[in-house]
Amino acid sequence: MRIVVVGAGLSGLFAAILSADLGARVTLVAEGRGSLALSHGGIEIWGKASPSRALPKLQANHPYAKIGLPALRAALGEFQALVEDWGGLRYAGNLSRNLSLLTAAGELRRMGLAPPAASNFDQLKLKPFTIGAVQGLLDYFPALIEQKASSLGLKVQGVIDLPVLDAPAKRALSAVDLARMFDQKPWRTELLRTWKPPLSGVSRLLLPAFLGFKDFNAIREEFLEELGCTVFEVALPSSSVPGLRLERVLRSRALDLGVEVIDGVQAKGRIDGPSRGKRVAGLALSSAGGQRQLNADIIILASGGFLHGGLEALQEHAVREPIFQLPLDFPQDRTLWTSASPFNLQPYAEIGVRVDKQLRPLDQRGRVMFENLHAIGGILAGSDRTHEGTRQGIDLSSAYKAVHAAIKPLRQTASSRRLK
Ligand SMILES: Cc1cc2nc3c(=O)[nH]c(=O)nc-3n(C[C@H](O)[C@H](O)[C@H](O)COP(=O)(O)OP(=O)(O)OC[C@H]3O[C@@H](n4cnc5c(N)ncnc54)[C@H](O)[C@@H]3O)c2cc1C
User: Fold this and answer.
1) What is the pLDDT of residues 332-370, one digit of tens each?
2) Any atom of ligand 1 within 6 Å of the Cβ of 29
3) How far, in Å, CA of 354 to CA of 369, rounded?
4) Residue 392: CB within 6 Å of ligand 1?
5) Pairwise CA distance, residues 222 & 216, whole Å
6) Kind of pairing, strands 298-301 and 373-375?
């Protein structure tokens, strides 16, 4: 059985891993990199209230209403076990209560599952902490965090300047630069030696998220053992180190499970003629090197929303899904696509592919279009994921639901064939 996943974002990578883990032969194709580098690395499930209470009340066309609470719960469990066992990333949290994390803008963001060492408000408020200032670091404003954190009732003991060794001479320093440097043991041993005097007496330290990609847990241990500091990380905007850590773990797990990854190709859908258009046959892949055909028993479409090419807004007030030309509902008048205030729900964000409970795209009359095509993640209709705070919860749970819905009938057919 060959499953082809289109898209290397959170939903596509998770779907590829789950499918391979269930024994399928998996190919993942992606035109570009998924957008985990633009994410805080946490898992927003339902930002506005307790997820387990809010979900049963949702309208029928919301992705979570199609996915259901049991699949969401199972997906989160699989995710937490996967990233901890494979990558040492221990995500805290559960479905019944959101955690509040301090952001780089000094605001609080509600999140279902938080990455390890994240700046969890409940932990920060237990005791005073110090903020580390790193000169020349892009998008990091410790004085702003100090001021906002104090207004939230947190006790900030002050801001301490921390020097950086070997900073780039001709451009600004980024969190990604520092994370790479922290992964080099000799460099960080020297740095911790330099930081020891200014951090003497500091037991709780808030830093931007830059403590390495691969040696993350070891680095936190070294801070504790050598400097006596427990570190809390605040994620900086793109490229976000916690998002990249997560991407690194998911990619490496997918490769370890034997997923074939084809990067840098643009996919177009191929419909299966002999099934009279009831099934998809595979993809045509284009790259600078030419074209190739890929056959599939199942395709999982994880090509993202407007921001990543899964949906395209056209000049003539129209929207299209470019891979299989799936039907989409959208207001004909483009002025109705956005709300007057950026803080309100945005109608354009709810545009997407409508699906059944197995996450198979529906036609204009509500009938399943192709038996073996499933859509997941940002391409799904029915939610403004940013406004709701549901982005990654929908990504993970839709991947879980689609993979299990797709693989079950194929397994049943295979076992009944064996019985005959
Ligand atoms: C501009 C931007 C801003 C963002 N801001 C935030 C933010 O503020 N907070 C936050 O948490 N997250 C943010 N994100 C991250 C993103 O929304 C989430 O990570 C998202 O939940 C993951 O979506 P996904 O898996 O559905 O697809 P994506 O991560 O969007 O990935 C889509 C994948 O599909 C591939 N693809 C698309 N079309 C084709 C094709 N024809 N052929 C082959 N491959 C194709 C793409 O190359 C990519 O690999 C942002 C993303 C973008 C792009």
Assistant:
1) 888 888 888 888 888 889 999 999 999 999 999 999 999
2) yes
3) 11
4) yes
5) 10
6) parallel
Give burial (CB, 10 Å; 0-12/13-18/19+) of 344. exposed
> Could you tell me which residues are beta bridge partners of residue 285?
267, 292
Distance CA 413, CA 420 (A): 11
Could you please report the per-residue DSSP string of 28-69? EEESS--SGGGS-SSB-S-TTS-HHHHGGGS-TTSHHHHH-H
**CA separation for the pair 50, 55 (Å, rounded):** 9
From 11, 13, 38, 397, give the residue whose CB has the most ligand 1 atoms within 8 Å, as the site to mutate: 38
Distance of alpha carbon 214 from alpha carbon 233, whole angstroms:
16
Consecutive H or E run containing 20: helix 10-21
Average pLDDT of every residue of the chain: 94
Against a cut of 0.90, is the pTM above it? Answer: yes
Quick check: CB of 304 below 6 Å from ligand 1?
A: yes
Q: How confident is the model at residue 419 (pLDDT cuts 50, 70, 90)?
A: very low
Residues 288-328: pLDDT tens digits? 889 999 999 999 999 999 988 999 998 888 899 999 999 99
The C-alpha atoms of residue 355 and residue 153 are separated, in whole angstroms, by 45
**Ligand 1 atom, smallest distance to 32 CA:** 47
Ligand 1 center–CA 306 separation, angstroms: 9
Q: Is the CB of 323 under 6 A from ligand 1?
A: yes
